[in-house]
Amino acid sequence: MATANFSLHTKDRKRLIKDRLVRWIVSFGGLSVLAGLIFIFVYLAYVTLPLFSDNEVTWQPAISTDIADTPVLTLVSDSGHDSVFFFADGGYIQQSLVTGKQKKHRLPDGIVRLQAIDDKTLLTVDNKGRYSALKPKLQLDQASGDAQLIVPELVEEQWISLPSAELVSAVIIKDDIVFASIDERGILQTQVLQHITTADASEPSFIATTALMPTAIEGAKELVLTPDGRTLYVRSGNQLVVINRDAQSLQAREVVDLSTPNGANVSGLHLLSGAYSLLVQYDNHQVWQWFDVLTEGERKLTPIRSFQFDADIAFLTPEATSKGFNVLLSSPTTSDSAPNSFQLQSLYTTSEKLVAESPVPSSNVLDFSLSNNGHHALVLSNGAMHRAYLPNEHQEISLSALWQKVWYESYPEPEFIWQTTAASDDFEAKYSLVPIAFGTIKAALFAMLFSVPIAVFGAIYTAYFMSSKMRRVVKPTIELMEALPTVIIGFLAGLWFAPIVETHLPAILLLLVALPLLSLLSGAVWYAIPKAYTSKLPSGLHPFTLIPVILIAIYLAMTFSSDMEVMLFNGDARVFLATHGIDFDQRNALVVGFAMGFAVIPTIFTIAEDAIFSVPKHLSDGSLALGATQWQTLIYVVLLTASPGIFSAIMMGLGRAVGETMIVLMATGNTPILDWNIFEGMRTLSATMAVELPESEVGSSHYRLLFLIALILFSFTFVVNSLAEWVRQRLREKYSAL
């Protein structure tokens, strides 16, 4: 007998080194994957966390000044380096907020009195008692890099007489000026100076048109004109008259009672950016936001949300480019001789978020103003100017704005809305994650309803009933479908399959029910045929008997689809659905369910088939030997043993469906709506990232919110996989005795 040179008891140093090397490589690979997942999670959280962090107000060193009077209007440059103070007597002072350098000027043309209409416009009165309006601005001088004050010149034709005017307001719309005034009798009138082009372009010319309110408004205390000059708000105590203006007339739209249930009185009105909302200030430390709501076909001014403060509101200034506003709160001290303390708070209306707050380093405040971009606040006190930097970052984002219903401007009720861009500068960003999270669940659900039965039952038949020769062909073919790019599936679904569904909608609906029933009926017929005939068919070819039935059913349904549409839907299925309150979109959840289900089937099938086929042969043989039928063995032995693997397959398919991007991007209308209607589209989290991330500004709220969406998807996948593993382990322990 030949002597063996190999023994399991013999120390093999090379084998030991290889074993340890491979173990180290495998361990390193596993730890690298885990480290990579942790790094992705940490990075996504790192980009997302600033959305919910507090903004810190930074106060710059005080700049001394000799200004002792309260200005009527203060301008602050967007850089925060320059300021201009306009005074009631027509003088103004331009002073640097960095060096303290000061220049004093006066407005020309005999102007003797100034009045601030809003944070941008001045109402001017000359020595003849005539009125005009101008809008000074600070703009950057490209040559010197300093802010330059631009004060438009007023020509003779831009002055109007308003005899006996008690309240006056004006807005400048390009080259036109709209004046509104209320005289001592309570008569409201508007005058429009409309610029016209003359033959001599160097000589500006204006045409004046006047409109009168037919009824008097008694006791008017405040007059506010919207920037477009089409709406006027006149306040008399707690009563507000809303007036619409057209070219020739003024018409009262409604009279609103502004008083609150606790009896607080109105102390001031302010227009929020865009002039769609009215901020109403009360004497009980409250501010309410009101805007128009369409009720029964009519627009009515409605109280929407309130902001409660714990001190007197000394100043309230809306931001020029956002839906936020800033307040300066005055808290009197207990001692009569001690000065008041002031608190600066920055708030955002839509998210109801306190963006930033800070104590003011001054106890005697004369004026408070903001730069046009809202990043710089200026507090003027006796002898000093205090400049603060307000980051105001991500003020639109709060947990309530992301996950709860929000009442947006001009909407009839609170809703979940995702809308991040618009053409108007007055756009109110809508960042509710609910519609796109709902769309993700909807797309995944319809895809799973289509794919799970086909994939699992196909895996059962392939692993348990199919001949080994045929299995060697079918299984690799289905696994090969996994390599099909999803962009191709989405392309075919959106441009080829969706029009077919729209054109042959009755046939598609019929086939959804008919094909499963025909398959069961075909099986029953095959079972009823004598075995003398069925046994002649070679083993493994039985599934091919079902293919002609399916093809004939599809052909007949498509051929007679128009006839069924006439018979069942009065000739037009889409109109029939619309009359019953069911909207139809060509790229809808039905199309996505088929397309994404087609992409998910290989994943579920492969894992489930391997789990069923891996059930030990002796278990099924023992069951059959004890007298159980094939179906009893399948249900009570094979499927129970393979249940951990089948569950894992379904969970893997769910994870694939949730994270799918290209199919839902190309096969849906990408409409972020909350509707379970299978004929409506949706927008998913992953599609939102793919569409909007390339267009978002780096570091913006929109940009970081897309990273939050990625974090949500990542976390969901982690939770689903963890749950699947936990259930799989429990099922394995439960059926391990088999």
Sheet with the most strands, sense and barrel status: 5 strands, antiparallel
- The 3D shape can be described as elongated
The number of helices is 16
Helix content: 25-40%
Structural class: alpha+beta
> What is the number of E strands?
33
Overall pLDDT metric: 86
In whole angstroms, how far apart are the ends? 44 Å
Poorly predicted regions are none
Radius of gyration (CA) equals 37 Å
Proportion of residues in extended strands = 25-35%
Secondary-structure map:
Elements: H1 13-48, E1 58-59, E2 63-64, E3 73-76, E4 82-86, E5 91-96, E6 102-106, E7 111-116, E8 122-126, E9 130-134, E10 137-140, E11 147-150, E12 160-161, E13 165-173, E14 176-183, E15 188-196, E16 205-212, E17 222-225, E18 231-236, E19 239-245, E20 250-257, E21 266-271, E22 277-282, E23 286-295, E24 298-308, E25 312-318, E26 324-331, E27 341-348, E28 353-359, E29 365-370, E30 376-381, E31 384-389, H2 399-403, E32 418-419, E33 430-431, H3 434-465, H4 468-480, H5 486-503, H6 505-528, H7 531-534, H8 546-559, H9 561-569, H10 573-579, H11 589-613, H12 617-625, H13 630-659, H14 662-667, H15 685-692, H16 701-734
Antiparallel strand pairs: 1-31, 2-31, 3-4, 4-5, 5-6, 7-8, 8-9, 9-12, 10-11, 13-14, 14-15, 15-16, 17-18, 18-19, 19-20, 21-22, 22-23, 23-24, 25-26, 26-27, 27-28, 29-30, 30-31, 32-33
How is this structure best described in words?
Strands 1, 2, 29, 30 and 31 form a five-stranded antiparallel sheet that branches. This protein has a four-stranded antiparallel sheet with strand order 3-4-5-6, with no helix packed on it. The protein contains 16 helices and 33 strands. The two termini are 44 Å apart. The radius of gyration is 37 Å and the shape is elongated. α15 (685-692) runs antiparallel to α16. Helices cover 37% and strands 26% of the residues. By secondary structure, the protein is an alpha+beta fold. The longest helix is centred in the N-terminal third of the chain and has 36 residues, at 13-48.
